[in-house]
Write a structure and sequence with these properties.
Layout: H1 3-11, H2 18-24, H3 29-44, E1 47-51, E2 53-56, H4 85-97, E3 102-105, H5 115-128, E4 133-136, H6 139-148, H7 153-162, H8 178-185, H9 191-203, E5 208-214, H10 220-237, E6 240-247, H11 263-276, E7 282-283, H12 287-290, H13 292-298, E8 305-308, H14 315-318, H15 329-338, E9 342-346, E10 352-355
Parallel strand pairs: 1-8, 1-9, 2-3, 3-4, 5-6, 6-7
Antiparallel strand pairs: 9-10
Bound molecules: ligand V47.
Length: 356
């Protein structure tokens, strides 16, 4: 297909297939950026969403070994920990007093702490803060809990709802291609299991996000395949709020990568996500992995959300990201404004709370 035909297809809002998705990468950056920016403008104008949130990572002890992970306690990171419920609650208390409206709770697959440790933390937080949104447990953790405690996915999901979990984060998706996945995270939740867990969650009337870890050993075709598998599930359920391309961070882990993605490749990936995912409302430029500078530019390449202030972050900062202490709200808002966009504080389900 000629580039002109491809461009017209995007302008006419026609759906693209795998080959066409791959061909988008061949467009020059500005043409591609413009196409994505027009779609973004149509949906959100100059609005850029963020929330005031707190990431909590209660344990780093993990029975799985993902080559890209620098967070789990291993030979390279021997500092094992598992927080008590009181420690988790104290973090939530402190964050609420600082204005947090969401806690994002993601752990490792720790076989020693028990199911009640995972679920009890949520119910205690919910009991004390009924309106605080709890976004917790990736599909990888849910698969781990189901296997470990001999439960069905439905049973784990129902228990989450009973314990006060409001939505699911998008972690654990990595790259769906089975061959790449077998190399980077053999043994953890499979692609079809990941999709099935989100399908089941959506069918219970709940929302979730989805990530894609890129910039390691995968190729462009694997990213497009990942995105199209998501588009298919979203057609069926409509339960995804946001797509989050995570840029691979390279330090302190076991994945040897020949070539890291350039800024252009990262921006192209945001733009292509916006173009292909005509049914997932939000594209999140997660500043933690993209760097704040590139995340701000990504607002002109299809992204409409920058995640949040985060306060503390352990997973990507263990692998080199500059996110350990989150971002000050005034600074965050100032950066968005200075980049020409209107910062809109949202809640976890994208209701607008405050226009800055
Ligand atoms: O799935 C692990 C990733 C994810 C590295 O739902 C790495 O709103 C880069 O899911 N380099 C967990 N990434 C984080 C996550 C997330 C983050 C922000 C927002 C949301 C949301 C979800 O972190 C894992 C994995 O793909 N990760 N190691 C690394 N070296």
């Amino acid at each position: 297909m000629k580039q002109e035909e491809l461009i017209n297809k995007v302008k006419n809002r026609e759906r693209l297939n795998q080959a066409e998705g791959e061909a988008l990468y061949e467009l020059d950056l500005y043409t591609l950026g413009d196409l994505a920016d027009n779609i973004r403008k149509e949906k959100y104008g100059k609005k850029s969403y963020f929330n005031i949130n707190r990431h909590i990572n209660p344990t780093n002890i993990c029975k799985d070994i993902c080559k890209f992970c620098a967070y789990s306690a291993t030979r390279k990171n021997p500092n094992q920990y598992a927080m008590s419920h009181e420690e988790i609650l104290n973090i939530a208390r402190n964050s609420v007093s600082n204005g947090a409206k969401e806690v994002h709770i993601v752990s490792a697959h720790n076989p020693d702490v028990g199911l009640d440790w995972y679920m009890g933390a949520f119910s205690k937080i919910k009991q004390e803060f009924p309106t605080l949104h709890i976004k917790a447990l990736t599909a990888a953790e849910i698969n781990f809990l189901a296997e470990e405690y001999n439960m069905s996915y439905d049973e784990v999901l129902d228990l989450m709802i009973k314990s006060g979990v409001d939505s699911m984060p998008g972690g654990g998706a990595e790259i769906f291609d089975e061959e790449v996945r077998a190399f980077i995270c053999k043994g953890k939740v499979t692609s079809s299991q990941w999709l099935d867990i989100h399908r089941k969650w959506h069918k219970k009337g709940k929302m979730s996000n989805v990530t894609m870890l890129f910039g390691h050993i995968e190729e462009r075709k694997h990213r497009i395949d990942h995105i199209l598998r998501l588009r298919e599930l979203q057609d069926e359920t409509g339960g995804f709020n946001a797509f989050i391309p995570l840029v691979y961070q390279k330090e302190n882990n076991y994945l040897k990568v020949k070539e890291y993605p350039s800024g252009q490749e990262i921006l192209k990936t945001y733009a292509i996500s916006r173009i292909l995912l005509d049914n997932i409302p939000h594209i999140k430029a997660y500043w933690v992995t993209a760097s704040i500078g590139l995340a701000l530019i990504a607002q002109e390449f299809g992204a409409d959300d920058l995640d949040g202030t985060i306060e503390k972050e352990s997973i990507q900062s263990s692998a080199g990201a500059k996110s350990a202490n989150g971002m000050n709200i005034q600074e965050f808002v100032g950066l968005i404004k200075n980049s020409g966009f209107n910062p809109i504080e949202r809640d976890s389900l994208y209701n607008e709370l405050k226009i800055y």
